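User: Before I run my own analysis I want an independent prediction to cross-check against. Here's the chain; please return only the structure tokens and, at the end, one sentence I can use as a sanity check.
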Amino acid sequence: VQLQAYGGGLVQAGGSLRLSCAASGRLFRLPDMGWYRQAPGKQRELVATITQSGSANYADSVKDRFFISRDDGEFAVYLQMDDLKPEDTATYYCHTRTFATDFWGKGTLVTVSS
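Assistant: Structure tokens:
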């Protein structure tokens, strides 16, 4: 399974970005998917997850600002990020767990300037 995340960039505080993650490989269905992030000098943390049934879960720090969605036909998951804050600056990673294995995409850097 390969995950390719893209859509990061530089944005001013209060702005928006949309991250995308495309999954490929031995998949018949898009599994439960998630977004994580890692800021410099900090541990990787959960941002949002979405199950196959579409149930979403968010970290408290991003609730009401970020929205995760999925397109099973495109084998893709998205993260709409609104009202971005400097503390959202991090490398964002797409994740899934299938075949009893964790898969991570290469991160995409999001930088929010104040």
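Sanity check: The CA atoms of residues 8 and 110 lie 5 Å apart.
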